[in-house]
Amino acid sequence: TDFAMALGVNLVNPHLSHQTLAGARKYDWPHTLSDHSPWWESYRMQADHDARVTVALGAGMEMNRVLVLQPTGSAWMYSLPSQFQSGVAGAAAGGWRKAALRSQVGLLKGLYAGQVDFDLGDEWLLEEVGSVEDGELRVGRCRYACVVVPPMMETIRPATLALLKKWVAAGGRVHYFGAGPERINGRRPGGDDGRLAEVVAGWRQHRDGDALVAAVRAEVPPRLSAPGGGALPPDLVWAWRGLSDGSQMLFLANPWRKLLEGVVEIAGGRATNLETFSGRIGEFTARPEKGTLRLPFKMGPTTHCLWWIRPEVNPSPTEVREPPRWAVNLSRLSVTRDEPNVCVMDYCDLELPTRRLTSINTTQADDLNWQEHGFPHNPWNVSIQFRRVFLEFPFGEDSGFAASYRFELGDLGEATRGLEIAFERPWLYRATLNEREFSTLAGRRWWDENVRAFPIGQLVQPGMNVLRIEVKPMHPLAEIMPVYLLGDFALVPGAVGFRVEASRHLGVDSWIDAGLPFYCRGVTHRYAFRTDRAAREILLNPGAWRGSAVAVTLDGEPLVRLSHPGAIVRVPCELAAGDHELAFTLMGNLRNQLGPFYSDGLPGVWSWMHHPKSAPPGASYRFVPTGLTAPPFVSLA
Q1: What is the C-alpha separation between 518 and 57, in angstroms, rounded?
Q2: Across the strands, what pairs with 326?
Q3: What pTM value is reported for the model?
Q4: Cα radius of gyration rounded to whole Å, the chain
Q5: Which single residue of 36, 397, 482, 615 has CA 20 to 30 Å from 568?
């Protein structure tokens, strides 16, 4: 969200919060904002951050001073109806549009990377509300110091020409590179029509985009820059707002997977750092020089800064001195999985009234089942129910299906007793494991209100095991979905899917390598340490980690939650001398439990439908890397 908010998004609409992910719902958007997601307990921190940034940026106005025209009319010149897009003309038009997109995006990225504040100008709005008054170019309530004409703007409107001519006559500057507009309203001017040449002659032409950006920066100095007026790192994402009292709000974001650091030079007398996750406020000790402040920043991957800069000088800034700090040695006590491991079975054998199929993906099996019963697809996935027409659909007595899921079991020893099998809406089915029936009415809730887990330790056998679920007649809520094996085990990629083997010792490593590829809940790393003196602050570097969030406890009490790998945090505390325990609980993501496993596309059933024809080797599955891969570091003060 930092990237979107810095670029002007001021309404963050969380999508979406499922009541249940049973059936086709999991293919809509499985990263549900609800207790299904392992990071749900940490979501308040992210929501507070979004809210604080939105409020801070919404308190002011952008007030951009550079107007960049949009080549909308030129794009319409090369827009062809679909029936005319074949042949030479269609290829030429398509090539122009792609080139124009690259050119316009490149120009805007260059201006933004140079910290140039700009708006995009529409020619029709300029005609309606644009004017030149008192030497200013005005568009409604906006005021501009210069205009940029993009290189792919081949045609220009007469009203725009007249406005820019008046603007140049009043001393305004228009910058462009390339040939400049060649047409008026799509037509080349006649030999006696000197309007276009006359107007363009008053503009400043540059050799390329870099030269244009440099000229604009010199003419309209950026409000924020590197010391001396240079550009800040080009990958820095930023947003500036001016408040009615003359103060400024500056938001810096680093949405990338690398370190960004530098020094911001900005007009002002004092600066306040607003910590958006914790809500803490702290003053910078920097003193202004000739009315400007120099504020250093060092942002790890996916981190940010929010600064409030005021014109008045702090009469007596308190010098903040770094307190004496000492490192502590962390001794690892244990690494434990907080919940049972998971093996997802997403292929099955399908028995329908008219045919049987083996080793097909559950998305395909589900569609085939609905087609067998007169529907083009699973109706819950492609349509919205009118009244209760799906729930009350009259399936015949001979309708229904049976689905069989297979898993290969190694020697788990005593862990075999704790094995469970979980599947959706089990009360609809008759279920057998290795041809032995078990009740589907008394299972425990697992992960979702409509998923139940059943103990199967007495029913499994070494080698291949087969779970068979059957519904007859067909029920409108009987959707063919993956089945989950739960327990204390590790998964080993096999020729077909995964073999279930004895669990391994967990350490500082990848969950995939540890045999937990589908697992997405918590893994807790517990450390002991000793301090010979009391401390009032703890500096936490949680180490290198991949996941959705980290929850940290100190002596069993919640200390802090982290959602950005690479972030180093200071946390106030009252720590007595003696022995203590720190615990880091790393959370995964539903992506590894729900998939899609064979496509990197956006969530949507189409991504799950991209799958091998039959059950593939375990190495073919795609997972998001998760785990603590470097130990944490802690110091006290």
Answers
A1: 39
A2: 636
A3: 0.85
A4: 31
A5: 36
